[in-house]
Amino acid sequence: MKQKSGFSGQIGFVLAAAGSAVGVGNLWRFPYLAAKDGGGLFLIIYLVLVLTVGFTLLTTDIAIGRKTGKSAIYAYESMRKKWKFLGVITFIVPVIIMTYYAVIGGWILKYITIYILGSGKEAVADNCFTNFITSPSSVWYGIVFMLLTAIIVYNGVEKGIERVSKFIMPVLLVMVVGIAIFSLTLKTTLDDGTVRTGLQGLKVYLTPDMSGITVQKFLQVSLDAMSQLFFSLSVSMGIMITYGSYVKKDVNLNKAVSQIEIMDTGVAFLAGIMIIPAVFVFSGLDGMSAGPGLMFVSLPNVFFRMGMAGRIVGLLFFLLAGFAALTSCISVLESIAANCMELFHTERKKTTGVLSIIYLIATAVIALGYSIFYVEVKLPNGSTGQLLDIMDYISNSFLMPFISLLSAILIGWIIKPSWIVEEMELNGKKFSRKKLYNVMIRYIMPVIMVILFLQSTGFLDVLISKIQKFI
């Protein structure tokens, strides 16, 4: 059942797709990894991967969507009937992600209210974030965020998703640039008289740190950059296939892919300029903690130390994070809804209504995973996680590299890259990176995805240690 609705044109599609790609990961995960992995060294590796691996994954998903006019499950089935299973696995990823993304949106919503109603002092109180997420009352914030997402998807592609994306994305970009410029003007004097400035923090961010570089460290930085790429671009989860199915045939996909790459990478890069200099000025790089600790603990402390301006900057930052989370959450729910409409031959409003009830319940369960439903599980990659971490590991670390590996095999060796190239060259359009795409999808992508998959399961570390012992 082909979707009747679609994007009005290239701008609407690019902004919606970029909105999906630009998520919370751009704002905390990218700056954290850049600080951890040698600043400019990470940036260079990430940029190379975006222009090669990211380009290949984006091109594949969007071209599949437009050429088949279907969402993941039926798109893969129409390519090769025996490969419908890959569409089903791809569909499972957003199904899992949707259980917890609104929970993270709810956390951001809580901090927005803190900065609207107060000076931000509450955000720096001892264990503020921990006390919040371990309180059963935190569930209401996730539910409100989930309801907002559902309302937008309920209103359809052009009137809902495209309209919201056309408003949010330009505002988001202006906010990122504004806060980034402000961060560069910051400075503070330490007790010993040393002056730290935002420009010094920028230098730390941009300068490649090659000290103590080894083959293993370089590999780890590359794997971090690769995992961030998955986390950021919304690839290998059916979202870009769904969005691609809404794109008109006269849209230039080559330009669209490049524009999405530029917007997503640009926001991530600017997020680094926005966060790393500010954290450096007030906390040194010790403040660049991993995960939610950076966004919900380190940054509120930075904002508080800015004085009166900190409340405004803090509010703007969490509004920015809320916009990023909302556009990504919309795309995840839309992907699920589109597949369900095709599977059950139902209308959008009925489908979205049923899914909303399901995910309001799921959001509540995951949000309560830090209190009433608390569990602690050892994951294959060595980390320990609660319900949210388990869902994130299964979808992002395990399934997505696996899907990309199978997709590369299907396109590269069974259907052949010419199938995608034909769509990219539709109506006489020039596919300038055709040779690069052919080499990437056939030879390089399978190898990279096997390595990434082995890393996510913990086998890569075991393999490396055995090789080192042998050498």
TrEMBL record:
It is a multi-pass membrane protein. CDD domains: SLC6sbd_Tyt1-Like. It is found in: Membrane. The chain crosses the membrane at residues 7-28, 40-64, 85-118, 138-155, 167-186, 225-246, 267-288, 308-333, 354-373, 393-415, 436-454. InterPro entries: Na/ntran_symport (IPR000175), SNS_sf (IPR037272), YocR/YhdH-like (IPR047218). Pfam families: SNF. Keywords: Membrane, Transmembrane, Transmembrane helix, Transport. Its main location: membrane. GO terms for cellular component: membrane. PANTHER family: TRANSPORTER (PTHR42948). NCBIfam families: Na_transp (NF037979). This is Sodium-dependent transporter. It comes from Eubacterium ventriosum.
